[in-house]
Input
Amino acid sequence: MEKFEIFEGVGVPLRRSNVDTDQIIPAVYLKRITKTGFEDALFASWRNDPEFVLNQPAYAHGEVLFAGPDFGTGSSREHAVWALRDFGFKAVFSPKFADIFRGNSGKQGLVSGEISEQDLESIWALLEADPGAKATVDLVAKTVRVADLMVPFEIDEYTRWRLLEGLDDIGLTLRDEQSITDFEAKRESWRPKTLPAKGAK
Amino acid sequence: MTPKPLTLAEKVWNDHLVVKGEGDAPDLLYIDLHLVHEVTSPQAFDGLRLAGRPVRRPDLTIATEDHNTPTLDIDKPIADATSRTQIEALRHNAKEFGIRIHSLGDIEQGIVHVVGPQLGLTMPGITVVCGDSHTSTHGAFGALAMGIGTSEVEHVLATQTLPLKAFKTMAINVEGTLRPGVTAKDIILAVIAKIGTGGGQGYVLEYRGSAIRSLSMEARMTICNMSIEAGARAGMVAPDEITYEYLKGRPHAPEGADWDAAVAYWNTLPSDENAKFDAEVYLDANTLDPFVTWGTNPGQGVSLLDNVPNPADIADPNERAAAERALEYMDLAAGTPMKSIRVDTVFLGSCTNSRIEDLRAAAAIIEGKQKAEGVRFMVVPGSARVRLQAEAEGLDQIFKDFGAEWRFAGCSMCLGMNPDQLAPGERAASTSNRNFEGRQGKGSRTHLVSPLVAAATAIRGTLSAPADLEGN
Output
């Protein structure tokens, strides 16, 4: 995972709340077995609409998304994060994220930062007044800036540290492998085991 | 000094702590049971292969094929190339990594959240994860069960643990007695309408109260299943005699001394009397009506006796805009009586409502009745075993005589990954869990309902409760 410190890219105003993961990537795209190449699937249904924000040339290379509250609700599909990442987004801002989406995004190096509704409205207005304007995400200072407006965002400290360091989850956990082995030694015999397989009696 | 009173969720959490996180770091929790399906696992196995890592505990892992399996002609090759590729990838990965798999055609195949409980693998006091948000279903047993993303699937495969941040706890108190025709599905739809699709965010919900205690295990699963639709990370019900009765004798349930030890432990799990929840919600079961959704998220629901709400009456501007957009998508006018809404299709199935009790309840309503003209009624049992059980009871014949399609097990029209989809603009009464735009096919319109409402709707052609059938 690449380290994330400061990033500047085209800001995209997505004036919608409750953007669920079925909208971010419809189920029909979940059949693929690769981990990349989902850029065409991002907001696939909405992209049929010529008026949709990402269809406007100024936002075609959007990299920082500003969406309404309750972003990423619904299905746990991590493809939603891959689709955003593959399209080119490095950060998403919303007043509120669904838990699973936020967890998934941190693991793929996508920053998901919470900003206030008031700041969101101001940023939407700035981006719509100047389509293609850049947004600067500073993960060290936990701020995002559009034009002269700099606003703070919230991200949990642990995810922030991992993003800043570019650390992979499994490698981190395996540093505690002895603790896992010790825990397994104490696991009660009544707890479930799938093997050997037993059928109905 | 007496120890601090704990909730059910906190007890299960504490008993799975491998490493306590310092400062802002998450806790590392041990995972007792990992359920795997074809959609969210291929990239996880790919990741293991890339890093040269094995599956740490194949004996705590089980795979089924469900999300894009066909529900007709299951003996023929899967027509859709990408669906076939995903399923073949799962079979290949299961073989390579030594994981038990129940493939299409196998007697234990079915929706992953139906199969786990059916095999007796889901039990109280365990941690369960699956790359599917409806893993919350298993919380009905008093398990801590969470949906996870593909990166986390890879993490659990590699380490049998998951780094997790502590949750807050919310008690959902449902007291009273449900009236005839009102079910667990109506309870959970009413709860979501009350707290909203984000209301449970950051919480583990515990469903409590006399109305919950009197529910069967399958009904409790229906409720826990939709916890995620309120944004919660998990939903739980404390284990009791109903839980033990359901579990005992199932293929993987503990036996002999193990059973006794397990029950002794399980009896310690219910939340302590003075345990403090971070939030409490109350719902009166006595006055609850059948509940249905009118919009495009599961929180947009009302009593079946109500009308489509008027967005102008909604104070919150975001909610109001969402309601306006939903009504446009659903092609509904504010003030329309819910009962006058005509549907094209009725879908009985999904991990929410496809178990034997759901099929029995629907069959009892339609038996000897006529299906409304032009309405398609699709019945998709949750597992191959549910299908066989239904056939042994003659339910399949009741459905077929009524004019319903009797299908093979899978997720089917709940998410329309297989050919079971609605056409653009089509409207369904669906016992599934999500009424999102396009969920059941591009341009599809979904009303979430209970199996009883689904059955009555299939007879009348408009959203209906069993009570509306009197005199028909």
Observations:
- The first strand of chain B starts at residue 17 and ends at 19.
- Residues 59 and 170 of chain B are 33 Å apart (CA to CA).
- Chain B touches chain A through 90 residues (CB under 8 Å).
- The mean pLDDT of chain B is 96.
